Amino acid sequence: MVGKKFNLMAVVSDFRAGGAEKIVIELLLRLKETFNVSAVCIRDKGEHSNILEEQSIKIHLSYFKGRIHPQSLFNFASLLRRENIHIVHTHMYRPNISGSIGAYIARVPVIISHIHSIHQWDSKRQIFMDRLTSWVKDKIIAVSGEVKNSYIEKVKAGSEKVEVIYSGVEPQKYKVDKKPAELRSIFNIKDGIPVIGIVARLAPEKDHITFLEAAKIVLKTCHNAMFLIVGKGPEENNIKAHIERFNLRDNVVVAGYRMDIPQVLNLLDIFVLSSVREGFPISILEAMATGKPVVATDVGGNREAVVDGETGFIVPKRDSSSLALRILTLIENPEMAAVMGQKGYKRVCQKFSMETMVNETTKLYLDLLAKKRVRPA
């Protein structure tokens, strides 16, 4: 492949602030070393598209009026032909449907869909559409074993068609030498006070209310603990209303969306994810990369990331008492928390690095291209 590269196009709804979108961006930035990389957004570009454009990765807009709108499909297929695309890699539900059909119409040699979350099958219609289009895809990537199993069960796809490639992070990016005193000042958190945080989109599936209910319980024993909520989303007003209702205003900080996630995570003593459904959350990997113990709910791929009792704790969803108990266990046993954090960091380095994800994805691309005897133009 000296001198010539295969043309790869990623298909997304947009590049907004989200875990899946972050993974796609990081993946494309690294794949550009091996492939001619571009992307197409079928809704709008989103606030993070500039990260790719600044690295000379072209982003196209190909708006879809509906998942199988004929003119939208034709326009998208025409774009693929003009760009002479060899690989289409779609991400998340809408692009997985519309993008794969458009790629099939354009006769793109390799079509791959990426399943980032279990809850893309919320309705019979969604399941039907996935079944309808699964045959045009050469491979489906699932971000966890749980997501793979759910896909096979719901869509009735063959196991051999679905490959697990875990999302990854770059561990060194999250190792900050010292806790950021500036952030403690901004959030009005004194030294020596335990900080428990959640970094997630403020959406119903993240169940911040259970996080707040657990905070109430913890504060009965550890009166000075602080709870940090980082993210933005439609649940912000509801979360703030519950903070007032639970009388937690002195112990809970709603920090909004922040770009300095490594520094924020290093401020924490314990990371919590209280979701009621997940695929394979990048936020857990980020917390482990900063050496923090994790308390997460037993949903999606959480158990595949967190080893219960070794790198943190797994608790039942919507169970604030169990969540609070594990948080208190870590507060009261700082040496245990430190050991769990260290083991979590080692686990990320060994199993969930960005390098591993990029290598496995590249191998999948090249294997499929070789199987179909495709050559770069």
Can you give a write-up of this model?
GO terms for molecular function: glycosyltransferase activity. Residues 18-172 form the Glycosyltransferase subfamily 4-like N-terminal domain. Residues 183-347 form the Glycosyl transferase family domain. This protein is an alpha/beta fold and 377 residues long. It folds into two domains: 7-168 and 353-371, Rossmann fold, CATH 3.40.50; 171-351, Rossmann fold, CATH 3.40.50. The protein is 44% helix and 16% strand. It has 15 helices and 13 strands. α1 crosses α15 (354-371), α3 (70-82) crosses α4 and α4 (93-105) packs parallel to α5 (124-133). The longest helix has 18 residues, at 334-351. The chain is elongated. The model has no long low-confidence stretch (mean pLDDT 94).
Largest beta sheet: strand ordering: 3-2-1-4-5-6-7
What number of structural domains do the residues give? 2
Please write the CATH class name of the largest domain.
Alpha Beta
Could you list the spans in which at least 5 consecutive residues all have pLDDT below 50? none
Number of strands: 13
Q: Mean pLDDT, rounded to whole units?
A: 94
CATH superfamily placement of the largest domain: Glycogen Phosphorylase B
Helix content: 40-55%
Assign the CATH architecture of the largest domain.
3-Layer(aba) Sandwich
InterPro entries: Glyco_trans_1, Glyco_trans_4-like_N
Domain Glycosyltransferase subfamily 4-like N-terminal: 18-172
GO molecular function: glycosyltransferase activity
Domain Glycosyl transferase family: 183-347
